[in-house]
Amino acid sequence: MLRETASQTAGPYVHIGLALAAAGNPVRDEEIWNEMAKPDAEGEHIEVVGTVIDGNGDLVRDAFLEAWQADAAGNYQSDYDLSKPFNGFGRTATTFDHGSEWSLTTIKPGAVKHPSGQPMAPHINLAVFARGVNVHLQTRLYFDDEAAANAQCPVLTRIESPTRRQTLIAKREEVDGKVRYRLDIRLQGEGETVFFDF
Q1: Which terminus of the chain faces fewer neighbouring Cβ atoms within 10 Å, N or C?
Q2: Are 119 and 155 in contact (CB under 8 A)?
Q3: Where is the Intradiol ring-cleavage dioxygenases domain (predicted)?
C-alpha cells in the first residue's frame, strides 16, 4: 500500500508549465488558458477579473487559478476541445503587470442542479494555487445580479454568515460596453474568502 505524499507549495514551476505567457515564455499552439468562450459561443458573454490578496493585504502577483463552470444551459461538458465555441475549463494567473489581475473571458453559466434536485445559483468554481499554500484552495464565484437565485442556492446558503457569503459574490461592472464581474480573493485575514473542503 502506497503512503500519501506531502503536498508541495505552488512555485514558479506552475507558471512555467501551465501559464507560459504569464511566465514570459512562448505559448504552445494549443493552450488551455483564459479564453473559455469564443465569440460564437451561446450565452451572455462576460469577462471575470480579480486579484488575489494575502493575509498582510498585499497582492499575490504569482497566483495561478483554474476555473470550471457549466454552459449557459446549466450543463457541464465532459470533453475539452479547443475547436469548440465554449469549453467549461480554463486557467489564468496573476502577474506583475496590469495591477496583478487574473481574468477569464467566458459566458455566464446557467443554474446547475444540486444532487438534492434543487438548482444552484449560477457560479464558477475556482481552484487557487499560490506560494505558501500547501494544498490548493477551492472556492466559488457567484454573481451579484442573481440575488434571487443566490438566496435559494443550497450551497451558498449553507454559509451561515451573510457577511461571509458576500466574499463569494462578484460585482457587475460595465467597461467599454462589455459586462465584467469582479471578485477579489483574500487568502487570510479580514474579509477572508470562503473556501470549501471538496
Answers
A1: N
A2: no
A3: 29-189
Q: pTM of whole model > 0.90?
A: yes
Beta strands in the chain (DSSP E): 45-50, 52-53, 64-69, 89-93, 102-107, 112-113, 119-120, 123-129, 137-143, 169-175, 178-182, 185-186
Helix (H, G, I), strand (E, B) or coil at 116: coil
Domain definitions of the chain by residue range: 33-186
pLDDT for the residue 7 = 61
Cα 18 from chain centroid? Answer: 16
Q: 15 to each of 22, 26, 65, 99, how far by Cα in Å?
A: 7, 12, 10, 18
CATH of 33-186, one of 1.10.10.10, 2.60.120.330, 2.60.130.10, 2.40.128.110: 2.60.130.10
Tell me how far CA of residue 112 lies from CA of 18, 91, 189, in angstroms: 28, 21, 31
Instruction: Give Cα 55 to chain centroid, integer Å.
Output: 20
Alpha-carbon distance values, 149 to 112, 120, 180 (Å):
11, 7, 19
Whole-angstrom distance, CA of residue 56 vs CA of residue 184: 14
